[in-house]
From TrEMBL:
Signal peptide: none annotated. Pfam families: Glyco_hydro_18 (PF00704). GO terms for molecular function: chitin binding; chitinase activity. The gene is Cht2. GO terms for biological process: carbohydrate metabolic process; chitin catabolic process. Residues 1-222 form the GH18 domain. GO terms for cellular component: extracellular region. InterPro entries: Chitinase_II/V-like_cat, GH, Glyco_hydro18_cat, Glycosyl_Hydrlase_18. This is Cht2 protein. SUPFAM superfamilies: (Trans)glycosidases. Gene3D superfamilies: Glycosidases.
Length: 222
């Protein structure tokens, strides 16, 4: 890790410069955690977070070296309470501009309910700097029984016209597909702003509905 980090940062810097990118987003799912097992030992968890902290601090140092004051570092995390505490403990908010809470893929029932979004926001701002947090909103749905995902575009195409107030539709066979309709996305956005968060994070825009042409940089007022 100590040998690879400087070289990786240099290669990252070359890539950013070549394509004139705005910065870098780190998405490690998840330090000290294995799917199917849960969190590993305290020693392994802390080792992963120490490595992650060194990586983001090295990235910020690389930005400073090139005088890239406008470049940003962002990071996604799962809002389970423990990850917020670990991010704070390892000083990661000191150098990361935005921390994107992945407030979706919740197990059991609706995978990204309004209540879950509120709990994630309230929990996050109690531990981390609110202005560095964004509430994650999904542009996809998940089957209530199988967990299989479906893009919002597919949902709209199949159930047109899709009521903006609706957050679930019946699935083939048993169960339903839970998603965030237009009204829920609006409500989540307004809640995030009211709580003083930095905004919302979309996962991901490529799954949005394309019934009408997409206009780059189009801003909608809520």
């Amino acid at each position: 890790m100590q040998i690879l980090r400087p070289r990786s940062c240099q290669e990252l810097g070359n890539f950013i410069a070549k394509y004139d990118l705005d910065g870098v987003d780190y998405n490690w799912e998840y330090p000290g955690y294995r799917f199917g097992q849960g969190y590993l030992s305290e020693e392994e968890v802390n080792a992963d977070y120490k490595g992650l902290s060194k990586l983001v601090f090295s990235t910020r140092a690389m930005f400073a070296k090139y005088k890239w004051n406008s470049k940003v570092i962002t990071m996604a995390y799962y809002p389970d309470g423990r990850q917020e505490q670990l991010l704070k403990e390892h000083r990661i908010p000191e150098v990361v501009d935005l921390l994107h809470m992945m407030s979706y893929d919740q197990g059991g029932g609706h995978h990204s309910s309004m209540d879950y979004g509120k709990r994630s926001a309230d929990q996050g701002k109690g531990i981390l700097p609110p202005l560095q947090l964004t509430m994650g909103v999904p542009f996809y749905g998940r089957h209530s029984r199988t967990g299989e995902w479906t893009t919002y575009e597919d949902l709209v195409q199949k159930h047109w016209p899709l009521d903006p107030k609706v957050d679930s539709v019946a699935a083939a066979g048993q169960g339903s597909i839970g998603f965030n309709g237009v009204d829920t996305i609006r409500e989540k956005t307004l809640y995030a702003l009211k709580q003083g968060l930095g905004g919302v994070m979309i996962w991901e825009v490529g799954q949005d509905c394309r019934l009408v042409p997409v206009v780059p940089a189009l801003v909608s007022e809520f």
